[in-house]
């Protein structure tokens, strides 16, 4: 029995349009009849580019009528194993942007200048702080003062392998921090022999213990006639500030501690640090010591997070650190005792064996000291302490300065030291700071180039040669 008009057999499509309506405006989109032969990708591309001459409108109408007649004949005499008609290759080529490579023109880049901005600096020559030598009963320490001394004081203490320049200079020069420290005077304390360009300590010099390093801060406070100060410490420096606060709670108004460890070292840390001090004294900065310092500050997988920053600190440890003096500082840190603080289970009773001042305890999610900060937080008074873990970083001051500056600003606002800053004020200060930097750059270079596209390399990577 012959199939009715409009049915399909073997994959052939038949038009549903009535016979004789080929000139209708609304023509069917399906081409009736058998499959059209595939012309190949190159022919489709030529059609998409308009390189193939299309038939006239009248010819198209005649062909459509011929196809319709052939379709009716094929429906009555179906052919088995008929394939589906080929898809619109020209349309696909136009949509996918398939253009022959030989038709592309060469483009010449003009007016492009490769510019290397100022590299990430770890030199005290770029700091606006004034260094002073303070005499103590356990040796002399270098203190760098930044800001107006009549304003409230912030006292900082650095971590292992660093000093005030490499640990705090970039953070306190951050735009958001510059808006904050205008209300304070910063006192950067360097551990004995850890300042930039320090001479090797004599062999007969007995390096102070952690408790004695904390006692040195009392000489610093008397030297500058400080009534109270806000402590800002990292790693070993945070431990030293805690010891001073336990002995002199009336002198400290608040503490911001990063990667603070409150317990004595375990066997693994003790063994690694003993090997480090041995190599530092005998062979200098070896690869093993360098790897340990990088792990101590950044944690694991540092290359994947911030390759340029890692290279900067590797270069700094290799070139700017006195290995003998660092070995003495590490040996003192690995011999530290427990802080002997604990939280009172009764929240209504103030315990004298813990820190009485407000504390903000900060760590990074990638930091190897994150668990130690959790232990430290469990020994603090929950009514005046808070714990903060910042994601995707290990060295929080370098990798996430914006989040740390915001947390520190809100912490000081809660203690009544800083007036709340609206987002509009912060935006205006950032704009003003950027304009100052731009004017300073024009003053140093002596010209302002316009109309030139600057391909800028990462400023941190330029320091490594």
Write up what this structure looks like.
The protein is an alpha/beta fold and 465 residues long. 40% of the residues lie in helices and 12% in strands. The chain is built from 16 helices and 10 strands. The protein has helices spanning 40-48, 57-76, 89-96, 164-172, 175-181, 210-224, 236-247, 267-282, 287-298, 302-305, 307-319, 323-334, 370-377, 396-399, 401-414, 423-445, and strands spanning 112-115, 130-136, 139-146, 153-157, 185-189, 229-234, 252-258, 359-364, 385-390, 453-456. The strands form 2 sheets. An 8-stranded mixed β-sheet has the order 2-3-5-4-6-7-8-9, with helices on both faces. 31% of the residues are buried.
The H-and-E topology, N to C, reads as: HHHEEEEHHEHEHEHHHHHEHEHHHE
Put simply, the count of helices is 16
CA-based gyration radius: 37 Å
Count of extended strands: 10
Q: How widely separated are the two ends?
A: 87 Å
Give structural attributes.
globular, disordered C terminus, 465 residues, alpha/beta, two-stranded parallel ribbon, disordered N terminus
Which helices and strands appear, and what pairs or packs with what?
Layout: H1 40-48, H2 57-76, H3 89-96, E1 112-115, E2 130-136, E3 139-146, E4 153-157, H4 164-172, H5 175-181, E5 185-189, H6 210-224, E6 229-234, H7 236-247, E7 252-258, H8 267-282, H9 287-298, H10 302-305, H11 307-319, H12 323-334, E8 359-364, H13 370-377, E9 385-390, H14 396-399, H15 401-414, H16 423-445, E10 453-456
Parallel strand pairs: 1-10, 4-5, 4-6, 6-7, 7-8, 8-9
Antiparallel strand pairs: 2-3, 3-5
Helix pairs in contact: 1-3, 6-7, 8-12, 9-11
């Amino acid at each position: 029995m012959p199939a009715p008009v409009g049915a399909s057999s073997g994959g052939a499509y038949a038009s549903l349009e009535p016979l004789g309506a080929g000139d209708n405006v609304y023509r069917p989109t399906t081409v009736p009849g058998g499959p059209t032969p595939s012309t190949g990708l190159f022919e489709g591309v030529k059609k998409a580019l308009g390189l193939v001459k299309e038939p006239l409108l009248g010819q198209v109408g005649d062909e459509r009528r011929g196809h319709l007649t052939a379709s009716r004949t094929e429906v009555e005499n179906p052919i088995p194993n008929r394939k589906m008609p080929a898809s619109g290759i020209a349309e696909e080529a136009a949509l996918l942007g398939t253009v022959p490579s030989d038709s592309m023109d060469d483009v010449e880049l003009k007016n492009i200048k490769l510019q290397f901005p100022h590299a990430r600096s770890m030199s005290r020559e770029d700091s606006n702080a004034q260094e002073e030598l303070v005499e103590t009963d356990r040796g002399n320490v270098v203190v760098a003062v930044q800001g107006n001394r009549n304003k409230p004081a912030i006292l900082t203490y650095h971590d292992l392998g660093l000093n005030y320049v490499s640990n705090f200079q970039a953070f306190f020069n951050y735009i958001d921090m510059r808006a904050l420290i205008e209300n304070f005077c910063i006192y950067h304390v360097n551990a004995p022999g850890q300042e930039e360009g320090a001479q090797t300590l004599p062999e007969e010099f007995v390096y102070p213990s952690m408790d004695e390093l904390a006692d040195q801060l009392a000489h610093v406070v008397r030297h500058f006639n400080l009534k109270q100060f806000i402590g800002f410490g990292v790693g070993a420096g945070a431990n030293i500030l805690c010891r001073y606060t336990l002995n002199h709670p009336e002198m400290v108004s608040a503490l911001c501690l990063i990667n603070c460890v409150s317990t004595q070292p375990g066997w693994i840390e003790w063994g690694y640090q003993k090997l480090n001090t041995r190599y530092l004294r005998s062979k200098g900065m070896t690869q093993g010591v360098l790897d340990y310092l990088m792990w101590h500050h950044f944690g694991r997988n540092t290359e994947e997070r911030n390759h340029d920053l890692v290279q900067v600190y590797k270069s700094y440890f290799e070139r700017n650190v006195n290995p003998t003096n660092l070995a003495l500082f590490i040996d003192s840190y690995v011999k530290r005792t427990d802080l002997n603080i604990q939280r009172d289970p009764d929240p209504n009773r103030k315990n004298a064996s813990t820190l009485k001042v407000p504390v903000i305890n900060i760590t990074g999610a990638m930091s190897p000291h994150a668990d130690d900060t959790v232990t430290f937080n469990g020994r603090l008074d929950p009514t005046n302490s808070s714990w903060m873990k910042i994601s995707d970083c290990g060295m929080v001051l370098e990798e996430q300065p914006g989040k740390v500056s915001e947390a520190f600003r809100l912490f000081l606002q809660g203690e009544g030291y800083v007036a709340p800053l609206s987002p509009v004020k912060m935006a205006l200060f950032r704009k003003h700071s950027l304009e100052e930097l731009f004017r300073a750059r024009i003053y140093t270079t002596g010209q302002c180039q316009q109309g030139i596209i600057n391909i800028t390399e990462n400023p941190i990577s330029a320091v490594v040669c």
